[in-house]
Amino acid sequence: MLLVMLFILILPFLSIAEKLYVVERERGSLAVVEEGKVVKEIEGLGNLNHATVKVWKGYAYVISRNGYLSKIDPKEDKLLKRVKVGNSTIGLDFTDDRIVVANYDPHTVVVLDEELNILKTLKTGSRNVGIKGFEGGFVFSLMDKDEVWVVEGQEIRKFKVGSMPFDALLSGDIYLLGFFKESGVGMIDIKNKLYRKLDFKAQGKEVVFKIPHFGTWGIVGDEAFIPAVGEKRLYRVDLRKMEILGHVELGGLPVFASVSPNGNYLAVNFSGDREDYLALVDVKEMRVLKELKLGQRIMHFRFSQDGTRLYVSSYFDSKLRAFQVPDLKLLYELDIPNPSGVFLIRRNDYG
What we know:
single chain; mainly beta; 4-stranded antiparallel beta sheet; 1 helix
């Protein structure tokens, strides 16, 4: 009985024992947040406009917009190495024992080993986006060629797709991509080497899937929650059948959509006149529970590991705020200069 009571007492403290890397966009740094406090800053990472942080094999990797790839030890929150891989860089991912990076400028995709040694540079003749790794290879989109390349070993399979492919997600063998210059989405079945263009219909009207950002953080099982720019809607899509299962009406134009780890809730932020707001959606009931003003320009957000909290970066406030889920009650806030991306670093990812 005593042990049970003790566990109940320490449970709230265990639940916040997680680490965040928060991008300080104008300073080229990451703020390290643990247990509701800023404990350190990792500096010298380059231009962190649209920066991405990913954890792989016990280390964190940061790609900067001006082409620097940085390797960080999350145990000590220390920059280990930084290399130049491009002039304008948009994304990175991992495949087997390799790191793959997509560049806008120069028109290349760069392959590196775990020590950030450049092994190969693939010339594409296009700005490259939507890079995703899988076992045995990687896939990416070529914005200026309206193509997708699937690279496996020395083999490159090229697919002609819609007009100006932009962001993409990879779920199992399915690579789903959005386009800037036309509606609908493209789907490549990597295993079966098939491509098809999908023009979704909802209520007799063609759905506009001009997607600014989407990824695996919007996936539950075989379903994806996809923001439809220009429609103020969030669509629920079956990735296997490629069918619309439903949609949620929103108060603004969606940017990011992220599902909580327990699959119960989904958070959405907005652009334009609703950029200060965030909506929390009940996934089961497919309805907005709350849509509240949570700061000045909500740039990014991340659910906690247990799904009970939502960390929100407010760019013009220079604040990181933690809210309770689902009531969105403010738990605490931290002063972080011009924060943008919020990335959860799980302890079991780095021991």
